[in-house]
Predict the structure.
Amino acid sequence: MISSIIIHQDALQSEFTILYGIMFAITDDMKKEWNQLTSLQRRLIISGAVVELLLLIGAQADIIMRPSKKINGPKIKWILISLIDFFGPVSYFIWGRKK
């Protein structure tokens, strides 16, 4: 029993080391200065940032303006959740508002 746990732990450590190496290689390769990006890459980054900002502003405004009884859970919870990347505002619009 103990030997099988040790074997599983070693296998997990090996997998973690491999995954970490792959992740590090990918992210290290992805580090570029702004002036090294193509104009398409720059436009996509700016467009994504604008979409994320508009979603955040829309979610925050909706949370503040909407009565508490029309929101699933406390407003403060959704205000904090909506601050999480792109997924926070989208989560609020999908699950936070009562139909």
About this structure: The chain has a mean pLDDT of 84. The chain has two domains: 1-31, 33-99.
